[in-house]
Structure formats: structure tokens, C-alpha cells
Amino acid sequence: xxxxxxxxxxxxxxxxxxxxxxxxxxxxxxxxxxxxxxxxxxxxxxxxxxxxxxxxxxxxxxxxxxxxxxxxxxxxxxxxxxxxxxxxxxxxxxxxxxxxxxxxxxxxxxxxxxxxxxxxxxxxxxxxxxxxxxxxxxxxxxxxxxxxxxxxxxxxxxxxxxxxxxxxxxxxxxxxxxxxxxxxxxxxxxxxxxxxxxxxxxxxxxxxxxxxxxxxxxxxxxxxxxxxxxxxxxxxxxxxx
Length: 241
Prior knowledge:
CATH superfamily of the largest domain: GAF domain
CATH topology of the largest domain: Beta-Lactamase
Structural class: alpha+beta
Number of helices: 9
CATH class of the largest domain: Alpha Beta
Strand content: 15-25%
Distance between the termini: 55 Å
Largest sheet: 5 strands, antiparallel
């Protein structure tokens, strides 16, 4: 009886979250609405929400960051492409399961994760849950939840609950992105941004400045937009083999 009641509550919570995603007017507001409702079921101390380009499987737009200190974005994504680690974006995009948590995947042996050693532990977090939003073989989003000492590690039930949201949230996000305003041809040439081997921007032409102004607000205005920092990190990793 208790198990049936728990399943009923999970189904109700899932329905409320999916309904909020469908009712959101834009892709950006979808993340805001879903985050508020998901935190009631799967609480966290910090989170990151990223739209994913389904062709390149690189984070692009929209982006929502909650309760995470600034300054980690570029190193977070550089680590993603340069280091081999558990629950990578590519693994979750292509694997059997769309969702996983570090503590559960590593049987508590957290130091085996580069991401834990270099980002989570120094920042005061003890577990990370990641979930790709996938539908029809394509990945449209990535959800990252972080927990510190005040919360237990993510349970198998919580991982399964978030996994159950992967396809319906991907459906909703895809619909919002495809329904967004489409820009026509503009009187601007190719934008050229030149980076050094460490990923530092050293040259930019006026056309590039124009196109950068068209990028949606990444919610991390003091840093390079995620769509650029991830593309640069991926290019550097590809060049490095």
C-alpha cells in the first residue's frame, strides 16, 4: 500500500513538472518553471540547465545557472572535452540511460572522478546528478543537479524519477526551440574569432561582434557565452587528438 501511494505521488509530481514545461512560453522560461517544481521532489544545492545542439551535441542555449559560484563555466566544459570521466555528456547522450549520479555510479569512490576532484569537492559539493533530455535519438538539453553536505547523495529512486522526465522535457524543449523566432538574412559577413592554444580570445572582427550581439543571453554575462566556450573547448580537444 505504501509503495502504491509513493508511486502515485511520483506520477502526480511528474505530471506537474511536465505540465509546467508545456505551459512555459519560451525555451528559457521552460528551465525556470521546471527547476522550481523539480526542487520540491529532488532538492539540490545548485543546478545547471543547458540547451544542447542535437547535431553537434554541444551545450548552446538556453542556459540557466542556479546557486553556483561564477567562474567555473569555461573550466567545467574544457574538462568535459579534455578529460575522460564517468557520466560524460556524450555517454549520457548515446547510452542506455539518460540519467546518472556520481556517487551511485562510483559506489561512493568519488575520488575516481576528475570532475569531483577538480570541481565538486573544492566547491563544497559531494554528489552530482546529470540527465540528458533525449527524444527520437537526439539530445536537446542537459540537467545538472549538485548536492552539498546538507543533503544525502542522490538515491536510485531520485535518479529514476529524473530519468522518467528525459523524453517529455526533451519534447517540450524541442517544441519551444523550433517555435522560436527565425532570423532572416542580415547584412553582415562571416564573423572571425581567433583563439590561442589555451583557448584565450586574441582577435575578433566587427562582423563577429555583430553576430555575438545576436546570441541569446546565456545568464552568465560576465563570461564568454556557453555556445562559444564549449565550441572552443571542443575544437581544442579535437586538435589535441
